[in-house]
Every structure is written in C-alpha cells, then in structure tokens.
Fold this sequence. Notes:
By secondary structure, this protein is α/β, with parallel strands linked by helices. The strands form two sheets. It has an eight-stranded mixed sheet. The protein has a two-stranded antiparallel sheet with strand order 9-10. Helix 4 links the parallel strand 3 and strand 4. The protein is globular and about 50 Å long.
Amino acid sequence: MHATLPLLAATDFPMIKRDRLETLQVNLGYLCNQSCLHCHVSAGPTRKENMQEETIEDVIRFLVDNNIKKLDLTGGAPELNPHFRYLVKTATAMGIHVIDRCNLTVLHEQGQEDTADFLAQHKIEIVASLPCYLEENVDGQRGNGVFQTSVSAIKLLNRSGYGLAGSGLELNLMYNPVGAHLPPAQKQLEKDYKKELNNRYGITFNNLYTLTNMPIKRFGSTLISKGEFDGYMALLKSAYQNANLETVMCRNLISVDWQGYVYDCDFNQMLDLPITDAGTRVHLRDLSSGRLNKKDIIVADHCYGCTAGQGSSCGGALV
C-alpha cells in the first residue's frame, strides 16, 4: 500500500484550535467483515487489532470524569469487538448518547443475529454506510452481494423499529462517492435515496449524511496507483470553503484508537498523527478534557477533505 502522509504533511491548511470537548469517538478495532475500497481505516477480516477490556475501562472512566454526553463507536465493525455490548450497556446506563457506525452487513454475520434488537433495546443511534442506492455501484466499491445484504439488514432494522416515525430509533445512512469526486448536495441526495430505496425495496431511514473520501490509506493508495492523487487534491483545494472551519468535527471531538491513544480525529489516527505532550503521545487514561481547550489541532493536506464544498464530517455535510 502506498503511504500518503509524505504527500500530505507539507500543508497550507489554516491552523485551527479546539473548542469544548463534546464527543468521544472510539475506534474499537480494525477487524471488519468487509474490505471496502474507500475505507480510510484499511479494515478487513484479517486485521487483529481489537480494543481490550482494560482500555474499555479507560474509556468508561474518561466518560464519567469528563461528563461526556456522546460516545461515537467505530471500527472496523465495532460490533465485532467482544466488549462492544458491555461498553454500550454501561454508557447508556449513564445517560450517554451512543452512536454505532454500522456497515449493515455485519448484522448477518454469525453471532450477530440479535444485534439489531440489542441496539434497539438500548436506543442506539445507528449511522450505517450505504454508498449508493444502486446495486452495481455499491457492489463495485464494497464487493459482490454487499448491496442486497445491506438492504436485508435495513429491513431487519426497520422491523426492530429503526427509521420509523415516532419510534425514537434513529437510522441514518452514510453516502460517500464511488470515485475521485465530491459528494452532491446532501439534502437533494437524501430525497433521492428515500424515494428510490422505498420504491424499490420498501425500506425507510431518518437522515442521509454525505462524506468526502479522504486521500489516505486504501483510497489514497488507489489514487496514487491510478495517477489521480494530485488531481484529487487539487479538486479538494479548489472547493475549499472557509466557513466550514467553524464546524469541523475536530473542534469538539477526539478520536481514540484501539490501544487508547488520542488523536484530533479519526483521519489523523489513520495517518498516525497523535496528540502529544512534550513529544510523547497521550493516552486516554492520562488525559482530562480541560487540557485540550484552545489547543492547536494537527493539520495536513487531508484536512481539505473536510472543508471542500458543503464540508464533510462524521455527521455529514457542514453547510
């Protein structure tokens, strides 16, 4: 795999500082039942990295000590971590809003047969990746059969109450472009998704988020192999919107890797750009949220992916 950090490190991206910490995003490991082309984590079935129980306890202590009200669980497939349910139960019992970033197909994996009902029981918000409403596009990016399995998983979630009006169970879908271009306008694409998925398959969801593909890890390496890296970076920079700087996710979020080390965002985690103190990477067990206030955020050229066009974050478009 081609390394992208050497192409991103020298940057003219504006310096930005942190605001109050609101969201703890935790990567429970890189193990996944899929190996998607766009994956900025390079997750897959052969990855061995998984957060252990000791680090799960560090996460819980940090949530309590710093009065964090939102826990965003990602991976890999976070549900494949053996401590996933313990963390979810503990966090929700403390009144914390939990988000599960689900690839949908994991719900049909062996041992996950009751996961949809478990998530519904604990009223977990689901953000589910579905890069298109067309089967050929999804299978081209994520593998043969993934689209139909994803549709089946959404039907399963709908039967558990997700995405239904008045249920209080929120199912949000995440779109990312199939190729080296920016996502279209989020609101119009959401209308198209809802119409097409309901008409074709009778499935419903709450919101659609659009995410710009980041020029790092598997997607970045593919761009380099195709000779498209420079052109894609030029596209991101040409679409830069200064207004997006005010609402980028790194201002109010930190990302924790499977070992418990802390980063400004999930993308910095994948580039191994950790938050440091006197040159030493910071572990969650040694951190208080107050230490981060007004601190500089580590930036590189990949940050243009979050500020291009409508902007892009784990919660979709920024404007």
